[in-house]
């Protein structure tokens, strides 16, 4: 019976009529085939469409990825308040990051994240009302079927059980030997709508920027960071022309989608393991369940995976550290714009000249701006409790 159902679905999908796929569905097709290594036939069955459609999508996969990452609804009126637009931009970036990891996000979670972002940006009077939520979803093409399921709520019992297990997992380890690692997307030319806009100037530059890097951050419970890994789309960008890549303040990796891959992650783990071995340290490394996070036998690192769909509550990097780094980055980016405003006619010229080398510099400075105490508090809020004697 099951085989017959699949056969009928496939025939209907390929022979009867074309089914229009949303941008999100097209993006999922690309991820399914390129990252999950699924077949075209499996994609046809899952999305109930024709083979020709799948082949067409894969032919245009680079454009689809860029369009998805920068997607906004052009028919929606622009935000009246530039500060709220900055909140929207930051929340949408976070939403994309969560979606890329298949983390389900509900409406209330989006509202809570928006309130948290407003506090970080020092924006008063923002309540993240239901009206704001509907406007936000409409503007960015987020449907309730994707983002607003009741099952998205984090299981409180699961979290409580984790806290109990965590005490035993970290027993005997110093804070300096307990780490959390995670990736985040950085839209490095993203500018707030309305910022420094001249009357009559078009604001196309203020739309969600498509220039994206993937940043792999690793921080320890004592408040320190490992060297970040940055993944771009070019092996050696033009701005690296006179630079030795191994002399950069980050580890530079690349692939055509600027995504974290299993191979890059294995390289990261092996390099971190070698570093810990040289320092005669054995560490715990807490990570999420992303498909690229492969488990390896390592001599000086013990990998611990968070329970699925709980990182918004349990992962220190997701509890303010990444967000603070991005807020710092935006501030540095805007400072550069303001410092150069007299030399250019429009802000788009300035933001367009921000290259990967600038981004690496801003990123390192943004990380240094995070206080060690802030990191320690984020770990504590996620259940990483240590004896007062630990340092």
Automatic annotation (TrEMBL):
One of its GO terms (cellular component) is nucleus. Keywords: DNA-binding. It comes from the Eukaryota. Residues 75-146 form the HTH CENPB-type domain. The keyword Magnesium does not apply. InterPro entries: CenT-Element_Derived (IPR050863), DDE_SF_endonuclease_dom (IPR004875), Homeodomain-like_sf (IPR009057), HTH_CenpB_DNA-bd_dom (IPR006600). SMART domains: CENPB. Gene3D superfamilies: Homeodomain-like. GO terms for molecular function: DNA binding. This is HTH CENPB-type domain-containing protein. The lineage of its organism: Eukaryota, Metazoa, Chordata, Craniata, Vertebrata.
């Amino acid at each position: 019976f099951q085989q017959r159902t699949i056969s009928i679905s496939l025939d209907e999908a390929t022979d009867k009529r074309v089914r229009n796929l949303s941008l999100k569905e097209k993006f999922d097709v690309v991820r399914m085939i390129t990252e999950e290594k699924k077949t075209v036939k499996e994609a046809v069955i899952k999305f109930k469409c024709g083979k020709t459609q799948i082949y067409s999508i894969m032919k245009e996969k680079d454009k689809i990825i860029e369009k998805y990452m920068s997607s906004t609804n052009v028919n929606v009126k622009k935000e009246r308040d530039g500060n709220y637009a900055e909140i929207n931009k930051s929340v949408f970036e976070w939403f994309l990051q969560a979606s890329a990891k298949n983390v389900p996000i509900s409406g209330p979670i989006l509202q809570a994240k928006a309130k948290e972002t407003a506090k970080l940006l020092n924006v008063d009077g923002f309540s993240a009302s239901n009206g704001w939520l509907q406007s936000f979803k409409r503007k960015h093409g987020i449907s309730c079927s994707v983002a607003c399921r009741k099952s998205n709520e984090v299981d409180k019992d699961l979290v409580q059980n984790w806290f109990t297990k965590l005490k035993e997992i970290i027993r005997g380890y110093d804070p300096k030997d307990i780490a959390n690692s995670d990736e985040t997307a950085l839209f490095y030319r993203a500018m707030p709508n309305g910022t420094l806009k001249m009357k009559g100037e078009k604001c196309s530059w203020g739309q969600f920027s498509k220039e994206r890097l993937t940043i792999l951050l690793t921080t320890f419970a004592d408040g320190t960071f490992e060297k970040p890994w940055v993944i771009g789309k070019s092996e050696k960008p033009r701005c690296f022309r006179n630079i030795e890549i191994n002399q950069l303040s980050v580890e530079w990796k690349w692939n055509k989608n600027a995504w974290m891959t299993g191979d890059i992650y294995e390289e990261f783990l092996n390099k971190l393991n070698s570093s810990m071995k040289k320092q005669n340290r054995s560490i715990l490394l807490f990570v999420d369940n992303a498909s690229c996070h492969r488990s390896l036998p390592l001599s000086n690192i013990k990998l611990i995976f968070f329970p699925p769909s709980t990182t918004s509550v349990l992962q220190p990097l997701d509890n303010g550290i990444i967000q603070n780094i991005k807020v710092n980055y935006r501030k540095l980016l805007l400072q550069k714009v303001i410092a150069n405003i007299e030399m250019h006619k429009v802000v788009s010229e300035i933001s367009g000249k921000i290259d990967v080398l600038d981004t690496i510099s801003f990123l390192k400075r943004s990380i240094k701006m995070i206080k060690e105490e802030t990191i320690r508090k984020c770990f504590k809020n996620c259940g990483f409790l240590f004896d007062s004697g630990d340092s």
